[in-house]
TrEMBL record:
This is Bile acid:sodium symporter family protein. The chain crosses the membrane at residues 12-30, 36-58, 70-94, 100-120, 127-149, 161-186, 198-218, 230-252, 264-285, 291-314. It is found in: Membrane. Its main location: membrane. InterPro entries: BilAc:Na_symport/Acr3, Bilac:Na_transpt, Na+/solute_symporter_sf. Keywords: Membrane, Transmembrane, Transmembrane helix. Signal peptide: none annotated. GO terms for cellular component: membrane. It is a multi-pass membrane protein.
């Protein structure tokens, strides 16, 4: 039975985007399936995702922050300048509805996504640098995300920066810290690697449940406003994500990074923690239900695009005779 769950966990990690999209499509036709994913429940589910991240981190991962401070500093600056800046530009160029604009800005102001580490590994990037960037942006998120959102979205809606700081602290930093502590205390036990092997599957399942909850919330609006609302929102998410990859690469090039680090910073900048954005939208902007739509689309699309980009990098290596 254990091997079955481990195999399922591996499958979910390898086919994250397919599973998340499948749950989203299912929920569209059966919208009441995830009605229970609201408020506190949604927050707890995100906390579980962040806990699974913490369980896979070791003290060596945090040593990267001290050993490579300049790399991580450049990465963090790129993360919190490029994505909010691109989101702000797109919102005004595309003249988005306030609710959709809020969702894109929220995604842009969030830290890097957890699955970016996997993508960096797949495309022969600098995995240590990827983990360092993820740790740094997650640690900075309680301050940077509310601050940047207040700057970029303050004209659209009142942003409770203090409340958001506390919420992000609760759903990101505390679960990650608990996970790290458990890893530190029990990491050398024989059974702990088995527990860690189940974490990817749990994380992906929780992410899919969050997306399902979002689809349940916006279902009526999607039906009422038709396919164009989805396509319009997806187009903005696509541009935001793609420009993040391109500008992240350029930031690495300007910093004089080698190929592995340029790949890593492009993936880290482009892939956001859209799950966190989804929970924040539900908790703080419930009066604007469509704000969660860009967040939900980003949850699925970032996994798909990250996989595609990693494949492109590997294809490039193959074409140029690199292993």
């Amino acid at each position: 039975m254990l091997k079955l769950f481990q195999g399922l966990s591996r499958w979910l990690a390898n086919y994250t985007s397919i599973f998340v999209i499948g749950v989203a499509v299912f929920t569209f036709f059966f919208p009441h399936t995830f009605d229970w994913v609201r408020g506190t429940t949604q927050t707890v589910i995100l906390g579980i995702i962040m806990l699974t991240m913490g369980l896979t981190l070791t003290t060596n991962d945090f040593k990267i922050l001290a050993q490579r401070p300049l790399d991580v500093f450049i990465g963090a600056c790129a993360q919190f300048i490029i994505m909010p800046g691109v989101a702000y530009t797109l919102v005004h160029v595309w003249h988005l509805d306030p609710a959709l604009a809020l969702g894109i800005l929220l995604v842009g102001c969030c830290p890097g996504g957890v699955s970016s580490n996997i993508m960096s590994y797949l495309c022969h990037g600098d995995v240590a640098f990827s983990v360092g960037m993820t740790c740094a942006s997650t640690i900075l998120a309680p301050v940077m995300t509310p601050l940047l959102l207040k700057i970029t979205a303050g004209e659209i809606i009142h942003v409770d920066a203090v409340g958001m700081f506390i919420n992000i602290l609760i759903v990101t930093i505390i679960p990650v810290a608990i996970g790290c502590a458990l890893n530190y205390v029990y990491g050398k036990k024989e059974y702990f690697p088995t527990i860690q092997s189940l974490m990817p599957g749990i994380s992906v399942t929780c992410l899919a449940i969050i997306v399902g909850g979002v689809i349940s919330t916006v279902h009526d609006d999607l039906v009422a406003r038709g396919l164009m609302l989805f396509l319009w929102t997806f187009a903005v998410v696509f541009c935001h994500n793609t420009l993040g990859y391109l500008l992240g690469w350029l930031a690495g090039k300007c910093a004089g990074f080698n190929t592995a680090k340029k790949r890593t910073i492009s993936i880290e900048v482009g892939m956001q923690n859209a799950g966190l954005a989804t929970v924040l939208a539900g908790n703080f902007f419930a009066a604007q239900p469509l704000a969660v739509l860009p967040c939900a689309i980003s949850c699925a699309w970032h996994s798909i695009s990250g996989t595609i980009l990693a494949g492109i990098y590997l294809k490039w290596d193959h074409m140029h005779g690199k292993n």
